[in-house]
Amino acid sequence: MQEKVFTIRQSLSIYALIIILFYVSSIFFQTRYGVLGIPLTQVFGLLLPGFAMVLVLQKDFRSVFLLNATKSYRYYWMGIGLWLIALIASGIYASYAIEFLPEEKELLDAFNYIFENVSLTNQILMIAVLPAIVEELLFRGLFLSSFLKHTRPSIAIIATSLMFAAMHFSLLKLVTTFILGCTFGYVVYKSKSIYPAIFLHFLNNGFSVLVANLLSDFEFIEPLTLRQNSTTALSSVLVLFIAVIIMTYKRGLNHDH
């Protein structure tokens, strides 16, 4: 009987193929079309190859991409709580790691170019909406469904998170994307659905876009002071936000009963 999802060997082969296609297409599209090449790379370098392999190897779309309805909203609340914790840890790491990875400033310059030359609406579409759909379907869908079928959940989540982190080709983002990948993967594993991960990925990237645009108004502040103040303020706000989420969640449970 034909398996509905990929084997680990098949998924790793697809991953190797996609890495090559993603790298080549990013050079081609971004050289030819500039900023517009970013979403084109997402579609032609990541999404379409994954879809094509599902068709070629005759797998089940719903099973591969975990297109199951979410049985409870509590998985979204749980995901938001975990994401907030991951966000604080990732932010603290990134703020200090940049000092030891000066070559990664080129990556920040690339993002600054986007923020300066693209409208906020298009930033959200390019950085939040499209990656949330494409990357989650690929990593927490195609790859995670394969690993969950053939390995223990902990190994599946860690392995696919490493694959997700490596795909970003950045030492600065390696740890942060791994932490986020584990967060999204765990929520998908518990909910058996890709949709909470897409929501969380959009929330994470959209939040980053909004914060980057807000902080761009404070360039006159000394970078170290800004880093320390923003980290402290962000942590306080997020702790308050977590408390509100917990209270809302408990009220929802009481109301259900």
Question: Can you walk me through this structure?
Answer:
This protein is mostly helical. 82% of the residues lie in helices and 0% in strands. Helix 4 (74-100) packs antiparallel against helix 10 (223-256). The longest helix has 34 residues, at 223-256. The protein is globular and about 50 Å long. Mean pLDDT is 82; it is low at 219-233.
| DSSP helical segment count | 10
Radius of gyration: 19 Å
Order of helices and strands: HHHHHHHHHH
Distance between the termini: 44 Å
Largest sheet: none
Tags for this model:
257 residues; mainly alpha
List the helices and strands and how they pair.
Layout: H1 8-33, H2 37-56, H3 61-64, H4 74-100, H5 105-117, H6 120-150, H7 153-166, H8 171-191, H9 195-215, H10 223-256
Give a quick summary of the entry.
With 257 residues, the protein is mainly alpha-helical.
